[in-house]
Specification:
Blueprint lengths: L33 H5 L2 H16 L4 H23 L2 H23 L10 H21 L2 H26 L4 H23 L1 H10 L2 H4 L4 H27 L5 E5 L3 E5 L7
Helix pairs in contact: 2-3, 2-10, 3-4, 3-10, 4-5, 4-6, 6-7, 7-10
GO cellular component, one term: endoplasmic reticulum membrane
Function: Hydrolyzes the sphingolipid ceramide into sphingosine and free fatty acid.
GO molecular function, one term: N-acylsphingosine amidohydrolase activity
Amino acid sequence: MAPAGDREGYWGPTTSTLDWCEENYAVTWYIAEFWNTVSNLIMIIPPIFGAIQSIRGGLEKRYIASYLALTVVGMGSWCFHMTLKYEMQLLDELPMIYSCCIFVYCMFECFKTKNSVNYHLLFTLVLFSLIVTTVYLKVKEPIFHQVMYGMLVFTLVVRSIYIVTWVYPWLRGLGYTSLGVFLLGFLLWNIDNIFCDSLRNFRKKVPPIIAVTTQFHAWWHILTGLGSYLHILFSLYTRTLYLRYRPKVKFLFGIWPVILFEPLRKH
């Protein structure tokens, strides 16, 4: 976490229960944590195009919701790191819970008939979200949120490993890449928290272009944003395979992965 004594800027005193390691208002007077803010673009823009593609492809609404939920997380995180206000912190952290619940629903409904609804699972996840929201608003303890979020991510990891081990082994590349990218982001998130003082001292001694590369919370955004996007692709690939579509991973501009598919034609 950030040491005390950061400067104030356009948004006034910090009211959030968390203040990360990036120096506040160091780049511009209008953005509290500049790099932690702009790094959220990876969670905002690509999922919007994914949602549009899902709508055009006639995919089930839960996959459209998955993409849009990731965009909401990115927008909430943008607002939080730009302002360091408590209300904006909630706009970041609570959608993380809600989006993961959507991901969990998608992963456990991959092998059901098209457009089916699992009301029991839906009720359980909505109830979980309501309980987490209510408790978190009352206790305001970030560790509680992190533990609840971790439980959801662990559930997704276990389900993904089951699928690539017992159902579709040829999806290991996509599944494990998603997991590996996310875990690398989590590692950098911890380094940023634990070694903040050392990182700040290092940044003072090196050119700005090098200092920027040590903004590990920004890298957490980039890597977990990419990992979450790849997870949606993995979930979508699994689903379309089960529905006997012909999914293929393509790379836009040779860089960004998307899934193209077509329904199986009946003869």
